[in-house]
Amino acid sequence: MNAMKTALAAGAALVPLLAGCTVAGNAADGGGSGRIVVGYQSKTINTVTAGTLLRSLGYFEKRLKALGKRDGTEYSVAWRDYDTGAPITAQMLAGKIDIGSMGDYPLLINGSRAQAQGGDAKTSWVSVTGYNMRGSLNGVVVAPGSKARTLRDLKGETVSTSVGSAGHGTFVQAARKYGLDPAKDVKVENQQPTVGASALQAGSAAAFAQFVAWPGLLVNKGQARLLYDGGQLDVPTFHGVVVRNQFAEKNGKVLDAFLRAQIDATNYLHTHPLEAAESVAATTGLPAETVYLYNGAGGVATFDPTIKQGLKDAFVHDVPFLKSIGVIQTPLDVGPFINDSYIRKAYGASYDHDAASTANPAAITGTDEVCKTKVDDPKTAGEVWVQGENKTRPVAGPVCLLKNVRALQGEGKRLRAVYIPDSTTGTRWFADKDVWVEDPSAKAEQRFKPFATDEGAQKYIAAHSGAKTVTYDEAVRNA
After folding, report:
1. What phi-psi label fits residue 235: left (phi over 0), alpha (psi between -120 and 50 degrees) or beta?
2. Does the entry feature the keyword DNA damage, yes or no (predicted)?
């Protein structure tokens, strides 16, 4: 990504997550004082390049300082933290936030309500923060001891979610595939993520359907088990940046500074993945291991600011769905809402080339030191994070990961985290939280297979005679 490498150099010289800004006092006209208010969701970690990480790096402020020297304006930035996209949209419609980053469903709601209100309230989607083409940023978790093995087992139960969020949308669409009517067969509790997580712990909710990073957080802490991986739905999910059109037209240079700063932060995340994860963790209170699951090399989220055709198509697909569940009243006119002209200008000449690619710019590479194998297949590549080491160790595949873990344990090393993709969906997950299957009929290097959900493991076993589940420790010993 040539343009992003160029931006990285600029970012280096300059040297938690929904975002919004407001410039007051005609700041962009020059010779004034411009106060920019940035709202973000600190715990929605695949928006960190337009929120938590961007804020901690100070790239936006530094670009504004440079802009101010040119136009005679003194800019300042105030950051505001929110739990979901709904309050960001409310503040934008009130003219108090001009730039925001939020998930795909909240973006649709934002655009729909802004178009319905009309006039100065209209907004546009102008860039992407993080995405997953299969939908694995969302998931449904249950308590570790739950008897539920598929979504079908939630019939008659209470499910906590944030209505209108991507996590809610994933649950509704997936439940229908299992023959459930989400409006009749389950009781949906509309709750903030923090409230829903507590409800799951207390037993007042049988399941918790949410967006990044909540599923991974609860599983990592041993407080939940992944029941449904959003990657099974195979529908793209993403987060992006939205702007009030009036603001963009009057303050184009400020928006350009924001998007260039976002590119700077994206490049920093790609080149300093562990440092970025530790920074976000320190700011948000989330475990760095959970942040890295999503944001690290080969992570569940791919960070790329370009607006891709597949994401546009998913957007169009989601409009009638959101109307069908009553989340939006006025269908969004998607065409006018999508505007990549600003990010195209900020990104540079390689925009079209990079927008056409869905390869993760931060792929896992290197050599598996135990298996003595080159690590180059994103479908199987994983990582081992050793306590006290400032970089992760790449592994070529599931069996090699198990061999690495055994070797490191033999050396008395402590492991912070181990990551490996699901054998079916490709969703990167915690290897020690996976359901492992041993298949005696497979080649030695493929004998052990990880699955993020019990359902995935059971489907594999049903199709492969002799295959059986084993514990993670057994897999480590016997690989």
Report:
1. beta
2. no
SS3 13: helix
Which H, E and C letters describe 324-385, residue by residue?
HCCCCCCCCCHHHHECCHHHHHHHCCCHHHHHCCCCCCCCCCEEECCCCEEECCCCCCEEEE
What 8-state DSSP symbol labels residue 452? S
Q: Measure Cα distances from 260 to 100, 174, 234, 249, 419 in Å.
A: 15, 37, 31, 17, 31
C-beta atoms surrounding 117 within 10 Å: 13
Running DSSP on this structure, what letter comes out for residue 445? G
State the pTM of this model: 0.91
The predicted pLDDT at position 474 comes to: 98
Contact yes or no for 167/84 (Cβ under 8 A): no
CA 153 to chain CA mean position, Å: 27
Per-residue pLDDT of 5-14, as tens digits, reads: 333 333 333 3
Rounded to whole angstroms, the Cα distance separating 224 from 142 reads 5
For residue 323, the model assigns a pLDDT of 87
pLDDT per residue over 381-413, tens digit each? 999 999 999 999 999 999 999 999 999 999 999
Residue whose token pair is 């009517």: 181
Q: Residue 452 carries which side chain, given as an amino acid letter?
A: A
Round to the nearest angstrom and report the end-to-end CA distance of the chain. 38
Domains of the chain: 2-131+238-355 (3.40.190.10), 138-232 (3.40.190.10), 366-478 (3.30.450.410)
